[in-house]
Amino acid sequence: MFKNIEEQLKIIKRGIVDIVREDELVDKLRRSIKSNKPLRIKLGLDPTAPDIHIGNAVPIHKLRHFQELGHTAILIIGDYTAFVGDPSGVNKTRPQLTHKEIKDNTKTYLNQLGKILNLEKTEIHYNSSWFSEMKFTEVISLVSKMTVARMLERDDFTKRYNSGIPISLHEFIYPLMQGYDSIMIRSDVEIGGTDQTFSLLVGRDLQRDKNMEPQVALTTPLLEGTDGNKKMSKSLGNYIGIYEEPKEIFGKVMSIPDNLMCKYFELATDATQEEIESHLKVHPRQTKVNLGKAIIRRYHSEETAERAAKEFDRIFKERKLPDDVSQIQISSEDTGENHKLWLVKLLVLSGFSSTNGEARRLITQGAVSIDDKTLTDPSVEVEIKTGMVLKVGKRRFAKIIVNSTS
RNA sequence: GGGGAGGUACCCGAGUGGCCAAAGGGGACAGACUGUAAAUCUGUUGGCAUAGCCUUCGGAGGUUCGAAUCCUCCUCUCCCCA
């Protein structure tokens, strides 16, 4: 039923950073094969942002690999830990979320997770189901398992502490909560990004303390965002969401620095090592095009990937209009009798600019054109006609529709 | 509990009575160029129908012709001592 150990290890070890400890994993796999019992593989996700992006999808894909190997994928939705806010890798306290935000995020998460995992075969737990029942004495007993010195050993805390950035007490509790999850679901393996290493190891300690066999900690690399140097994250705005429009994904991929292409291939596509190597041999622009397509293919279809690539060429190489220009309604009330509108006002009304000043700036900078004619005079009034195409910058287009009000 | 240092625009950070709508960097946006929403270079980056006016420097008051800068109180953070 299960593949042999070598084959399983080959798949498990692709694209990961570290296994603590590999001998324990081998042992667990051996026993699993012998007793024909799947391993319990844990991945915790805090619904802190409404979207899954290709960076935090890396460990999810790893979980999928285990699922494909016949093991039990276990998702912990950290609806309770999201309250606490994971301090890992951040340099300031995360804002605490409200119940509603967490609930909404959870919903979109599950939707999006279905793109990667087979949810029917996935065990899903909400950690609120145990934490909300917990007594204060139990909290104390959990907290007593950790020392301040060990917490402060962590690089992210040390940095924050040394540079005088506040660390709130509740942030210390986070790794313990994550570890407690491992006890509750009796995980054999836990997957996480390298920034999770500490928490994963705490899980081992806590399980051992409960006389359970400690979980194996499996860490995946962190993917840099589109800016090329910071970890991909929603809050930095350097992410590529798996649920984004294909053309949006494509554009964002095209904007990553060249030297990141290899890593993206490895972590964000299904390409094999040989395929990656051959991709890297062609012209860098073509490599990036292939990368963009490969990423889209993973979440959408082959066809949409092709279309997104073509569309990109049309807009940015040939400087033509995209095939579906979004429409913007302008009420005839705004245009008045003569059907004319101050250009600045038009930009604000159509949402391309939030203030008149910004609109004025865009116009003087030569960013604004109507039906391919660039307009640089901010005081100009333009006649508004249905069907005319307003372009702002290189990538923002809108077709104007005049709404007559009676 | 005692003492000290701080809170500046989207972020970091200079500024310690007028020359401050506030240096510098990052980010963002725009233009040129190109292999792309890469890289590089240049410009813009509080609001306002725009030589001018209005609102910003944790909050509330006060001193002054004039305050981000001085004073008082409040509030939050950091450091040292206990």
Features:
46% helix, RNA-binding, alpha/beta, 5-stranded mixed sheet, Rossmann fold, Tyrosyl-Transfer RNA Synthetase, 13 strands, globular, 6-stranded mixed sheet, Structural Genomics Hypothetical 15.5 Kd Protein In mrcA-pckA Intergenic Region, Chain A, 406 residues, 19 helices
What does this entry show, briefly?
The chain is of the alpha/beta class.
Topology, element by element:
Elements lengths: L4 H9 L4 E3 L1 H14 L4 E6 L11 H12 L3 E6 L3 H4 L14 H15 L8 E5 L1 H4 L4 H8 L4 H6 L1 H8 L6 H17 L3 E5 L3 H13 L6 E5 L25 H9 L6 H8 L4 H7 L4 H16 L2 H16 L9 E5 H4 L4 E3 H7 L6 H9 L3 E3 L2 E2 L6 E3 L5 E4 L3 E8 L3
Parallel strand pairs: 2-3, 2-5, 3-4, 5-6, 7-13
Antiparallel strand pairs: 1-6, 8-11, 9-10, 9-12, 12-13
Helix pairs in contact: 10-11, 12-15, 12-16, 13-15, 15-16, 18-19
This protein binds one RNA strand of 82 nucleotides through α12, α15, α16 and α19.
Helicity level: 40-55%
* Oligomer description: single chain
Instruction: Name the poorly predicted regions.
Output: none
CATH classification class of the largest domain: Alpha Beta
Sheet with the most strands: spatial strand order? 1-6-5-2-3-4
For the termini, the CA-CA separation is 72 Å
CATH topology of the largest domain: Rossmann fold
Helices and strands: which structural class?
alpha/beta
What fraction of residues sit in β-strands? Answer: 5-15%
Shape: globular
Number of E-state strands: 13
Number of helices: 19
Q: Could you name the CATH homologous superfamily of the largest domain?
A: HUPs
Q: Calculate Rg over CA atoms.
A: 26 Å
CATH structural architecture of the largest domain: 3-Layer(aba) Sandwich
The biggest beta sheet reads: 6 strands, mixed
Provide the number of structural domains: 3
Mean pLDDT: 88
